[in-house]
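REVIEWER CHECKLIST
Item 1: Sequence provided? yes
Item 2: Single chain? yes
Item 3: Sequence as submitted:
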Amino acid sequence: MMNKLSQVNSSPWVTTAIAAGVAFVIGLLFGLVVLGWWVWPVKWVNASPADLRPDYRQTYLQMAVEAYALTGDQKVAKDRFEALGKYGPEMLETLAQTPPTGLSVMTIGDFAQAVGASVAGMPAATAKPTRVVGTPAAGGGQEAETGTAGLNGLLLTPTPAATPPAKHSIAFRLISVLCGISLLALIAAAGVFFWHSRQGPKTPATAAQRAQAMTQAAEATNFEAEGREPPISQFMTTYVHGDDLFDDSFSIDSPSGEFLGECGIGITDTIGVGEPKRVTAFEVWLFDKNDIQTVTKVLMSEHAYNDEEIRQRLAAKGDPVMAKPGEEIVLETAQLQLVARVVDMAYGDDALPANSYFERLTLELAVWPKEEKPTEGEPA
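Item 4: Structure as written out by the authors:
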């Protein structure tokens, strides 16, 4: 369990997920605290009277009552009262209970009747006030109008409808977008980390898988470029130390698809004890459907070939041949001829005798019809 945790913790996906999480937290704190509150704080403009401080709301209502007493404009008075929203009725009742200096309870009652507000303990209004225009002064009527206009400039202009607070600045919206992207990146990194941890550590490739990769990477012989007739069948196979079940065979078919025979290679002898096996010799064989017997040759390591006892023992299985890079082994039957070429090879290195077993061996098998295969060294 501890090994698995250590492998997961050492994964680059874990580092990425942690880095993304730290970056998200830092970005969130910097964006909201530093930029959102200090550098680019939210500013409110065109706020309605309902958004004012309580004492300013009370002053606003008092001025609205005084303006109505002067103008008698019921519509403007109602608009101003409704601008206070839910605070209007309560503030009007408070104003009626403790009228400020210069403002009578009767005047407040007239205002309440005009705006349709019900105030407990408020006396009934006497008469609907009329608009006060003012008396012209001597030498002209302009002074009275000027005085009224000065008050209207402050209070008697209808208050515009309440507007919502201003939208966030572009910088704040940009910060919000960046925070959202960081959050998505963190979620994605966490998802990838979870998926990667569920997969578990990758198991190393088996010997057979490594052999297959080597076979695919090996370059086959271009017999036409060498001036020789191309074979009817050409195969590549690789053995890697650890593949104890190595035994490769191939079907030989004519260009028209007729089955002609088979060929292959398999383990025939090992050296030492324990697993994996240490292969010291392979058996290369060719089967011809028109022949009564299978032709076999034994491809041996240098140590096995030079050991008289081993060579004599394996000779019963086929003619012994020492493996060398580029070495060609020819097998012939009644109708077929097989040329096995050592493409690549390497010996293992441990306490056993030098060059005694194969670490790897790549072999190319090329097959021709016997009568069509030119003798080596003769022109095609």
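Item 5: Key structural point noted by reviewer: Residues 49-156 form one domain.
Item 6: Recommendation: ____
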